[in-house]
Every structure is written in structure tokens, then in C-alpha cells.
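W.,

You were right to be curious about this one. When I first looked at the sequence I had no strong expectations either way, so I just let the prediction run and decided to look at it fresh. Below is the sequence, 247 residues in total, followed by the output.
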Amino acid sequence: MQGDAVRRSAGERRHGHTISHEGPLAVLWDMDGTLVDSEKVWTISLADAARELGGTLSSAARSAIIGSDLPRTLVIMFDDLGLPREPARMAQAEQVILTRTAELFADGLEWRPGAQEALRNVRAAGWPTALVTNTGRALTELALDGIGREHFTVTVCGDEVPRAKPDPDPYLRAAELLGVPASACLAVEDSPTGVLAAERAGAAVLVVPCEIPVPGGPRRVHRDSLVDLTADEVRADYARAIADCAA
């Protein structure tokens, strides 16, 4: 059963947070590039895989991969390297990527500026929270060893839904688990792929770009970083996103 794979944090069971009814009903966090600076880690493992395939991943392909799940990543990589999409060879490349990324994740991940304090502020304000990532469960668990599971009511990974980002399934699943409509949530994202997924789910989006720029749009509010993201700022950003949509 798919729901069995979605983990609820011990922190939520231990602490009786009061849900804030101002602003969003829940805050949904992306992981790679939003909370932790793991895109640089992925760059290393992708380069290693491309090298084993006999080529070098172009900068354009690397940018296109940001925010993608692993199946889409492999398609982009093989097309960029001019290789046929042979299932056996793609499976080998996938294993290289997973193994190398796991090694690097186990060494610890660097926080994005302001991310750790922002997580604490949101939880202290009482909002239900979800980690919504395209990264698979096994690697996400390694990342959570450093990030802290206590920050999230639920976590949803790209390999636990029928379709990963940019489809809305991960965000819709997170909202379902939290018992709130996705349209009443604020998603925090760094990439065009993730922003599109949240937008398709109906959520307002706080965009904090990392590696590549993200264009503006309805229900999108941009910040340069998560530094000084207090509960009041969350409410204000959500109100701005909703107002932009209404306008």
C-alpha cells in the first residue's frame, strides 16, 4: 500500500502543535536546492555516471535535470550524450548515480541559507508540514538523518507516487495525508520543475531560486533566500500569492 511508505515524524506525535488558521493551512517543503544544497552533490554523481558512459554532461542538460526524478534524469542524460535508451545500460547508470549520491549524502548536506531556522519557525507556529521531494525514499532517509525528521508531519518521495514532479501527484499526496486541500497550502520550491508541480496541484508557491532562475507567475511569490523567514513572513508571502492570483 502506497501510504505505508510515507513516514510520519515522531516529532508530530510527541508535540501537540496548534494549527494556525491564518495564512496557509499547511507548508510543503521541497528538499534539494530548497532546504539543502544537494544539487551540487547531484552534479558530482551525474558527472561520474556520464563519464562511465563515455561522455560529459552538458551544462544545458544539467540545468534541465534540476528538480527532476531519476527516470527523467536518465532520459535527459542519455539523449544529451547521444546514447540509445537501452534499458540495461540505463539501469547500470542509475545504479552508479544512486550509489555515488548515497555516499555523498552520508557525508552530510549543507543547509541552504536560512533554511534550518525557517523550518523551526514554521513548526513553532503550529502549521502542519510536509517534505515533498522527487528524490527517492532511500536517499531521502539519508538526507533526513541530517535535516531532522522532527520538522515534518509527513514526507512524500518521488518513487511513492504514480507521477513525480512536474506532475502534481507529490503535492496532492502530501495535502491528502495532511487532511487539507492543496489549494490552501504554501509550497516552498527552488526549481521550475518543482514550482510547476505545486502550481498544478493548486498550491500557492514561495519561490526561492537556487541553481537556475524561476519565472514569475500567478500564485508565485519570490524571495532571494529563506533567511529571516518568520511565521509572519509566511503569512505575508501567502497573502501576496493569493492576492496576485485574484488580481
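Here's what jumped out at me. Strands lie at 26-29, 129-133, 154-157, 185-189, 204-207, 220-222. And, maybe more interesting for your project: The chain has two domains: 2-37+109-246, 39-106.

Coffee later to discuss?

I.
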